[in-house]
Specification:
Blueprint: H1 9-20, H2 25-33, H3 45-75, H4 86-113
């Protein structure tokens, strides 16, 4: 969805905050998501949909960044050549799978607590 198609002043203020505090993007989007029913009076359905898409995109980007950082530091111990060795490739693959598995376990645990 094209954000320029959205006209809400509240949305513009919200997005300007996001641009200023992009390191807290997910926090702002979670804050927005937690507004619940109060959102319907302030934002249109298109705006809510757009912001939820942005939240999902930000969460995926954050997960990829964390996974890449953790697995790269663990598996690539020397300067990489033009191609990963089989052990580096295997390590990265295993690390990514473990990271995703643990993320799901943690997420399910938090969901069961609520």
């Amino acid at each position: 969805m094209d954000p320029s198609a959205l006209n809400s002043p509240e949305l513009e203020r919200f997005l300007s905050l996001l641009l200023l505090k992009d390191s807290n993007l997910i926090g702002y989007l979670i804050w927005f998501d937690n507004l619940g029913d109060g959102v319907s009076g302030k934002f249109s359905a298109k705006e809510v949909y757009f912001l939820k898409e942005e939240k999902e995109r930000a969460m995926v980007n954050e997960m990829v960044a964390k996974l890449t950082s953790a697995c790269w530091d663990k598996c690539i111990t020397s300067a990489p050549g033009s191609k990963l060795s089989s052990s580096e490739s295997s390590c990265l693959s295993n690390c990514a799978h473990r990271y995703m598995d643990m993320s799901l376990i943690i997420m399910k645990r938090f969901q069961s607590m609520n």
